[in-house]
Amino acid sequence: MSVRMDFVVSVPTVIPEQQSNRASWPWLFSARVDLAAFAGSALLSLMLLAWGAASGLLDRDVPEWSWVTCILLIDVAHVYATGFRVYFDPQELWRRPWLYWGTPLVGYFLGVVLYSEGEGLFWQVLAYFAVFHFVRQQYGWVALYRSKAGEKESWSKWIDVAAIYAATLYPLVYWHAHLPRGFVWFKKNDFLGAPEVLESLCWPIYCLALGLYAVTAFLRWTKGTPNPGKDLVVVTTAACWYLGIVAFNSDYAFTVTNVIIHGVPYMVLVYWYWTRRRARAEVSATARWRGLVWFVATIWVLAYAEELVWDRTVWHDKAWLFGTAISLEPVAEMFVVPLLATPQLSHYILDGFIWKRRANPDFRL
């Protein structure tokens, strides 16, 4: 199954003379929000990585506090943020009912079929769906920034595409070529092995793609037409993916670098869109703060509820947080595990549709 994950918006072209003014640079939300979402999340990732290296966490299992903050409150929670884009918006939900109701139903059915063929096959397919989603989201940010800046040159598009895909795919190729690593995506053996020569062949392509991007970005800055948000996405993606997957063979390093820069910007995007939809009825600052509390509390409660069921029925490794484990019969597990995975699988698929300009009359928000 192939799902397009690129985000495309329709915005006026910004002329070069206007871009020379920092206030008119092509930010997606605003300078403050963009910097907090992209630079802030990457900086937090790198600070946690540095602290982990200094304190010896790189050679240990992921500590419980980092699992709670990164996995529970960001990774799992950002999946439920999609609810504010679709399922908690009755107007949007009934605008495309076949897509929004059909996706989880079909996803659950296919999950049961896969699990019935083997637990390993189920987790392997889900892992590659997740990888595809993570890669395409980073490309989506680049596409958004290109559109916001009115960058229409085909040659610069190919350089941007090559750079963001190199920044994500090369570390994944390295991972596949150096199995087993000290970390996994979901479960052990959910990735297929690849020959090491493949990684050697991809290395010069990786360097060339990022080098070309650096040159074109430098030229845009010298001409007074920079796209700082796009540069942030490419640089932070390249840094975090390389450090978390290639440079360090550590579960902790992979967790803090992989999850934060993926989940935080996405939650900002959904919250921004949701508040703009609500702003027609509520415009006060107080209402927006209440909205933020409601948004965060909702996705955190739903994330906790999902992980509680996961841990009690399947994982059985965090009784201190979720309580006593429950043993499932293999037949029951075949239906329960795909059900628990349905929210994230639906998120992966729907994310390829809900941010398309052509299918969303309100995406200008």
Report what the structure shows.
The protein is mostly helical and 365 residues long. Helices cover 72% and strands 0% of the residues. It contains 14 helices and no strands. α2 (31-55) runs antiparallel to α10 (251-258) and α6 packs antiparallel against α9 (228-247). The longest helix has 31 residues, at 119-149. The chain is globular. The chain starts with 15 loop residues before the first helix and ends in a 15-residue tail after the last helix. The relative contact order is 0.18. Residues 1-20 have low confidence and may be disordered.
Short synopsis of the structure:
The chain is mainly alpha-helical and 365 residues long. The protein is built from 14 helices and no strands. Helix 2 (31-55) packs antiparallel against helix 10 and helix 7 (154-177) runs antiparallel to helix 8.
Taking pLDDT < 50 over at least 5 consecutive residues as the criterion, the unreliable ranges are 1-20
Shape, principal axes of CA atoms? globular
Computed Rg: 21 Å
Structural class based on helices, strands and sheet pairing: mainly alpha
